[in-house]
Specification:
This protein is α/β, with parallel strands linked by helices and 328 residues long. The chain contains 10 helices and 13 strands. It has a 5-stranded mixed β-sheet with strand order 2-1-3-10-4, with helices on both faces. A 5-stranded mixed β-sheet has the order 7-6-8-5-9, with helices on both faces.
Length: 328
């Protein structure tokens, strides 16, 4: 599909909304560089979101959707910016009216990584001594950690990547689980003790992908975004996010998903949902269909519901970890 690129009324310099953290800025600069290859000038507009300001509270306690995206989306809708750049895993599956994810850049490593304090003699999750404090702010990571190593202690760990690395180094926690993509993009691979390999350990839906969000009616910007889109990544994350949406998931539900295409473009979509304490976990997989990735995600979600996912979701609602579904 083609869109007209020239528009005399459009701003000559594209304004790109981004969070202010170093990782977010590096990701936004990747989009800026892609625009530069099209001969398009741009500038970054930085934001501190609710999730950034309330860094001393657990994400699950703050409770609202769009903790790291709402402020960017509001200004995008108002026309104060023309593009918003997000870590796709932070972006709710239900986009506001008038906005869409027009592109995703080629995906970085989607896996989680274990970072261990240098004074702890451990080279893997299994090596960590009983009672070790492992930091994370993710309920998905908490659930998988407790399912794998119930004798470990999970500690709330918030802050940007450098802050979390500093807390590990200072011994506030013995280890932590972070997204490998963020460590790679920040040039911090040397901190990784080991990767938590899939499908035994599943990342968040969309992890490792950078989303380029635009207004649906801005055909000029949509055309620019289309040129930076990576189709294999887009197909994979569409499946993962459809799975997440079909299970009514978000940051308050321990859900993991990853589509692993093969060289022909097919492959497997893996998914899981767990109770927060990891005592119940339902896992499944389905053949990945590149021609209809969204339906693939929905089908896997339905399979997991039949295996007990609905009961896990109901248990989370009773424990007030997520709201009840709203009537149509």
């Amino acid at each position: 599909m083609c869109f007209p690129v020239s528009d005399s009324s459009a701003p000559s310099i594209i304004r790109i909304g981004t969070r202010v953290s170093e990782l977010a800025l590096r990701q936004a600069r990747m989009v800026q560089a892609a625009l530069g290859l099209q001969g398009v000038a741009s500038e970054l507009v930085t934001y501190r979101t609710v999730g950034d300001k309330r860094f001393d509270e657990p994400l699950s306690a703050i409770g609202a959707k769009g903790l790291f995206t709402k402020e960017l989306e509001q200004d995008l809708l108002k026309g104060k910016t023309q593009i918003a750049v997000h870590s796709l895993k932070d972006l709710p599956t239900d986009s506001p009216d008038g906005l869409l994810v027009a592109a995703v850049l080629e995906r970085e490593d989607p896996r989680d990584a274990l970072v261990v304090n240098g004074r702890i003699l451990a080279q893997s999750l299994d090596d960590l001594p009983r009672g070790s404090r492992v930091g994370t702010s993710s309920l998905r990571r908490r659930a998988q950690l407790l399912a794998a190593r119930p004798a470990l202690e999970v500690a709330e760990l918030r802050g940007n990547v450098p802050t979390r690395l500093k807390k590990i180094d200072e011994g506030r926690v013995h280890a932590a689980i972070l997204a490998a993509a963020g460590l790679h993009r920040l040039g911090a691979r040397q901190h990784i003790t080991c990767y938590l390999d899939v499908p035994a350990w599943l990342p968040a839906a969309g992890q490792g992908a950078i989303a380029v969000q635009v207004r649906t009616d801005d055909e000029r910007i949509r055309a620019m975004a289309a040129l930076m889109n990576d189709p294999p990544t887009m197909r994979a994350v569409v499946a993962e996010r459809a799975f997440l949406a079909a299970l009514e998931g978000g940051c308050q539900v321990p859900i993991g998903a990853l589509a692993i295409p093969d060289i022909e473009g097919d492959g497997i979509l893996h998914g899981m949902i767990a109770s927060i304490d990891g005592s119940r976990m339902v896992r499944g997989q389905i053949t990945f269909d590149p021609d209809d990735p969204a339906l693939c995600g929905i089908r896997l979600a339905n399979e997991l519901r039949g295996l007990g996912a609905s009961e896990i979701l109901e248990g989370l609602r009773r424990a007030e970890h997520l709201p009840s579904p709203q009537p149509e």
